[in-house]
Design goal:
It is built from five helices and three strands. The chain is an alpha+beta fold. It has one domain (5-90). Strands 1-2-3 form a three-stranded antiparallel β-sheet. A hairpin with a 6-residue loop joins strand 2 (16-22) and strand 3. The longest helix has 8 residues, at 36-43. It is globular, with a radius of gyration of 14 Å.
């Protein structure tokens, strides 16, 4: 498991895994519920955007690095772009 993912618990009623993620900068915790098959795919090398296409970029960043939105803004400023913005920049 990644160091910023403190805990994971299977929820049988909803067939989800609840992850407890801690921001490495500020220590705030966030809980995310994800599909266990998608989580397994990501842990085994699938790109996070392919494993979780419906997840927000903020939640995907939390999965990858643990960084919360507030710390992301302090570190990088307004550097997030949507997929459409990136595609349009490359055109």
């Amino acid at each position: 498991m990644r160091p910023h993912i403190l805990d994971r618990a299977y929820i049988a009623e909803t067939d989800e895994v609840e992850l407890t993620i801690q921001c490495p900068s500020c220590g705030n915790e966030k809980k995310l519920k994800v599909n266990p098959d998608k989580l397994h795919s990501w842990f085994n090398g699938m790109l996070v955007q392919n494993a979780f296409p419906d997840m927000s970029s903020s939640d995907r960043e939390a999965l990858i690095t643990g960084t919360c939105d507030e710390c992301w803004e302090m570190i990088f400023g307004d550097a997030r772009w949507s997929t459409d913005e990136i595609i349009n920049r490359e055109a």
